[in-house]
Amino acid sequence: QVQLVESGGGLVPAGGSLRLSCTYSGNIFRINAMRWYRQAPGNGRELVATLTTRGSTTYPDSVRDRFTISRDTAKNTLYLQMNSLKAEDTAVYYCNALVITTAPLDAMNYWGEGTLVTVSS
Q: From residue 11, how far is each of 21, 69, 88, 91, 98 by CA, in Å?
């Protein structure tokens, strides 16, 4: 079983910063890509950052130049550094990983349970 656990959410004023963490564990053979999503009440789930195994990153216009995705492979941890936060960034943030497992050999997208980020204006 593969598990992803997010942490680091909380209440922050507009203009402030937060760093989210996602620690992963399990029978992982390879992680092809990792992503951060977010979902606010009444909205669909939005992709906010992607990191490939080659180290390339992508961001939508809504967070570009403010958010940074990174990974520490030694610590099995994915990060999302969020700066210059806005009220519209308020959402539950989810970690996602495309994982190839062993015993059994499989490929699947895994999700964490989410961590709440609230930005006050």
A: 16, 20, 13, 11, 29
